[in-house]
C-alpha cells in the first residue's frame, strides 16, 4: 500500500471516529456567567448586597442545555443550571444554589417542560431590566420575579410574531400548599434582536402567594432602548396590594452604554411601605461576551433609604 493510500485510510478512520463526537457536540452546550463586583452599600437595606464594602460574584453560574431527537419533529430538551457562590469565603460550605433545571419535549405542538423554571410571569420582563442580577434588579421592589420548582411550563409555537406560554404548579413546596398558574402573551421580540419592539401582558395567580397582572412595552429606536412597566399585585390573603410603575432607558454610543432605571411600588410585597428605586450606570461593552460597568442604586423607603455603588466585570461563556 502506498503512502498516499495509507494516509487516506488514516483520514477515513479518523473521520469515522470523529463523527459521533461532532454529532454529540451539536446536542448539548455548556455555558455560564462569571462576574466579579466590588460594591459599597451604606446601610444594607438593599437586597442582594450587604452593608459596607463587599467583593461579590453576583449570580455567577454554570449550566448545560441541549436536545436529543426522539423521532422526526419530536425532541427531548433539557437544562441543568446552578449558581456558583463559592467565590466568597462565607459560601464555601454551600457553594451552589439551584437555578433552572428541567426536562421536557419539543414538537410542532409546542414545548413542554417539567422541573424548576422561571415563571412565565417573570419571563415577561424581556429586556426591560437594564440592571438585571444587580442591586438595581427590578426584583428589588417589584414582586413576581420568581423561579419555582415542581412546575410545568408550556410554550405554544410562535404565530405571527406572537408567543403564548403558561406555567402551572400543583403546589410550591417552599412557600405554599396550593396550586397556581401564570400565563403570558408577547407580541414582537422580547430580546429585541429580530424585531425592534415587544409588548408583553401577563397574569399570575397563586404562584409564590401572588396574584398580579402586568404589561411591559419595549422599543429600540436608532441608538435608544426604552421600556415601560405597569403592574397591579396583591398577596393571596389580600392583606397587601398596590401598583408598580417602571421606566428604563439606555443609549448606545460605540462601546459605551449609559443607562437609567426608575421603579415605584406601593404594594408593600417586597418592602414595608411604598418604595422607590432608581439606578444609573455605565457599561463598556468589549464584545458579546464581556463588559465592564459602574453603577449606583438608591432605595427610598418611607422612613429610610440606602445607596449602593459598584464596579464590576462580567463574562458570558
TrEMBL record:
Membrane topology note: Multi-pass membrane protein
Domain of life: Bacteria
Protein name per Swiss-Prot or TrEMBL: Porin
Protein's GO biological process: monoatomic ion transport
Alphabetized UniProt keyword annotations: Cell outer membrane, Ion transport, Membrane, Plasmid, Porin, Signal, Transmembrane, Transmembrane beta strand, Transport
Quaternary assembly: Homotrimer.
UniProt GO MF annotations: porin activity
Stored SUPFAM superfamilies: Porins (SSF56935)
Annotated localization: Cell outer membrane
Pfam families in the record: Porin_4 (PF13609)
Chief location category: membrane
GO cellular component: cell outer membrane; pore complex
Domain Porin: 23-300
Residues in coiled coil: none
Amino acid at each position: 500500500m502506498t503512502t498516499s493510500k495509507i494516509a487516506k485510510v488514516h483520514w477515513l478512520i479518523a473521520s469515522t471516529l470523529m463523527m459521533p463526537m461532532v454529532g454529540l457536540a451539536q446536542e448539548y452546550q455548556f455555558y455560564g456567567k462569571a462576574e466579579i463586583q466590588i460594591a459599597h452599600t451604606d446601610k444594607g437595606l438593599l437586597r442582594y448586597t450587604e452593608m459596607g464594602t463587599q467583593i461579590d460574584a453576583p449570580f455567577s453560574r454554570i449550566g448545560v442545555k441541549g436536545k436529543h431527537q426522539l423521532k422526526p419533529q419530536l425532541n427531548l430538551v433539557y437544562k441543568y443550571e446552578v449558581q456558583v457562590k463559592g467565590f466568597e469565603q462565607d459560601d464555601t460550605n454551600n457553594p451552589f444554589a439551584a437555578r433552572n433545571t428541567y426536562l421536557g419535549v419539543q414538537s410542532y405542538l409546542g414545548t413542554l417542560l417539567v422541573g424548576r423554571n422561571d415563571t412565565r410571569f417573570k419571563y415577561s420582563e424581556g429586556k426591560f431590566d437594564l440592571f438585571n442580577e444587580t442591586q438595581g434588579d427590578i426584583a428589588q421592589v417589584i414582586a413576581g420575579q420568581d423561579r419555582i420548582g415542581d412546575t410545568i411550563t408550556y410554550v405554544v409555537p410562535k404565530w405571527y410574531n406572537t408567543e403564548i406560554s403558561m406555567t402551572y404548579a400543583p403546589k410550591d413546596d417552599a412557600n405554599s400548599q396550593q396550586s397556581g398558574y401564570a400565563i403570558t402573551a408577547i407580541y414582537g421580540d422580547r430580546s429585541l434582536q429580530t424585531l425592534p419592539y415587544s409588548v408583553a401582558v401577563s397574569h399570575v395567580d397563586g404562584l409564590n402567594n401572588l396574584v398580579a397582572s402586568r404589561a411591559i412595552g419595549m422599543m429600540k429606536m436608532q441608538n435608544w432602548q426604552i421600556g415601560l412597566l405597569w403592574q397591579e399585585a396583591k398577596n393571596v390573603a389580600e392583606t397587601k396590594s398596590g401598583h408598580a410603575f417602571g421606566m428604563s432607558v439606555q443609549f448606545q454610543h460605540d462601546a459605551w452604554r449609559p443607562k437609567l432605571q426608575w421603579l415605584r411600588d406601593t404594594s408593600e410585597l417586597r418592602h414595608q411601605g411604598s418604595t422607590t428605586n432608581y439606578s444609573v450606570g455605565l457599561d463598556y461593552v468589549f464584545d458579546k461576551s464581556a463588559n465592564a460597568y459602574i453603577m449606583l442604586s438608591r432605595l427610598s423607603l418611607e422612613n429610610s433609604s440606602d445607596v449602593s455603588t459598584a464596579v464590576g466585570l462580567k463574562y458570558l461563556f
